[in-house]
């Protein structure tokens, strides 16, 4: 199973009055990790978008365990939890500056046509990406 780690420097504007990262920012960090994972596989989202295909978030699940604070360096660990040729579920762990797991979560995505949001089979439309997902998940 392929895991990609992405460093995040916690910025002041990402925190609340207590100096703790505001909860919605973890979803932004998930996206940063997901984009880094996708690029690590050798692909670019903007190339997919040129073909009028997007991959919206269908579901997000997040658990908060311990805070990440201003001034810390966080690490987003990203991997593929589930993939079936159409739907991909990314999993995440965010570690705080002490290396503790602060946040875990998953996001579910399906490639769709940009204008209609009709689902598109990754297996058929992007066979190289399909193969890369299988290899990253450890299925091939």
Automatic annotation (TrEMBL):
It comes from the Bacteria. Pfam families: 4HBT_2. Keywords: Hydrolase. GO terms for molecular function: fatty acyl-CoA hydrolase activity. InterPro entries: 4-hydroxybenzoyl-CoA_TE (IPR050563), HotDog_dom_sf (IPR029069), YbgC/YbaW (IPR006684). SUPFAM superfamilies: Thioesterase/thiol ester dehydrase-isomerase. NCBIfam families: YbgC/FadM family acyl-CoA thioesterase (TIGR00051). Belongs to the 4-hydroxybenzoyl-CoA thioesterase family. This is Acyl-CoA thioester hydrolase. It comes from Salinibacillus kushneri.
